[in-house]
Design a protein that fits this description.
It is built from twelve helices and twelve strands. By secondary structure, the chain is α/β, with parallel strands linked by helices. The protein has a single domain, classed as Rossmann fold, CATH 3.40.50.1110. α2 crosses α12 and α6 packs antiparallel against α7. It is globular.
Length: 294
């Protein structure tokens, strides 16, 4: 379903409810407006939960948030488990987004069970470049080390980390190898910190884009989540309760856009998101993987 008046998304009010707040529009395409918990500056998928009853916390990026989808997989999982599943998905978030947010970490640590989406290794602060503190997909600046290695590149041309790392790899794969290794080491260290902060009952959710559906410039660096492989997840196995792996497809190439909600100008972006069918399959896989754990 296409909303023909996307301008309604920009009439924003700021509303405070108890110790939570959320941003809402005067008229909305989706009922579940973005919300904030406590003093957190991260915008999560609404509706905001009171967190009084036992719950499952689901942390992740754009896929977990469920952009353009009426019922993202945490909401579907809520019904299948018969327990509140608090959607702590944040569009464009990475591991650092959560590690730097004590309010969200606290919600995750107090949950009966936490599900953590595996997010790409390119969206982390590291020895070679800095990323935005909340929108971790945004490139801020290179370090002196990166400018020394890639002296021929004008880094002012980059806004997103994915564009950056794909360009570094294209310009010189052998030089990029040291950057890639650093990103993977940083990812493992940061993920270990996140898992320890959330406690013993954590399930990792590995969403793997089918190769023919990715069609992105970063395909030579591996499918999303970028730079992550099975060996890296195996190294975290002792720190997690389970790893649930699900193959997903982008909505446009897979014809999975029925029921998605977006403005006319947002159609190209919606095509690159996962659609309702992928969200249903994720919820089903998690329901099986979480059976008896929560």
């Amino acid at each position: 379903m296409v909303i023909e008046s996307p301008q309604i998304w920009f009439r924003v009010n700021f509303i405070v409810v108890g110790n939570m707040s959320f941003e809402g529009s005067g008229a909305s395409a989706l009922d579940d407006l973005p919300c904030r918990y406590g003093a957190s500056r991260l915008l999560m998928r609404g509706p905001a939960r009171t967190l009084d009853a036992p719950y499952v916390a689901v942390l992740g990026g754009t896929e977990t948030y469920g952009k353009f989808v009426t019922n993202p997989f945490p909401a579907l999982l809520d019904h299948s488990l018969g327990k509140d599943c608090v959607n702590l998905g944040c569009a464009n978030a990475g591991i650092d987004s959560f590690l730097n947010d004590p309010d969200i970490l606290g919600i995750g640590a107090r949950a009966d069970l936490a599900v953590v989406q595996v997010m790409g290794a390119q969206n982390l602060n590291n020895r070679y470049y800095r990323v935005h503190p909340r929108r971790n997909d945004r490139f801020l600046e290179p370090t002196a080390l990166l400018t020394e290695i890639y002296g021929e590149i004008d880094f002012t041309e980059f806004n997103f980390n994915k564009h950056l790392v794909c360009t570094l790899n294209r310009v010189c794969p052998s030089r990029f190898a040291v950057v890639r290794d650093e990103l993977r080491r940083a990812w493992l260290g940061r993920m270990s910190l996140l898992l320890r902060a959330l406690g013993p009952k954590v399930v990792l959710l590995w969403l793997r884009y089918e190769p023919h559906a990715s069609g992105q410039s970063g395909a030579d660096l591996g499918d999303e989540p970028m730079l992550i492989d099975r060996d890296m997840l195996d190294q975290l196995a002792d720190e997690t309760h389970a790893i649930v792996e699900v193959q997903v497809q982008r909505a446009g190439p897979s014809g999975d856009m029925d029921g998605m909600m977006f403005g006319a100008m947002q159609a190209p972006a919606a095509e690159h998101m996962i659609g309702p069918d992928s969200h249903r399959r994720i919820a089903e896989a998690l329901g099986r993987g979480l059976a008896g754990l929560s």
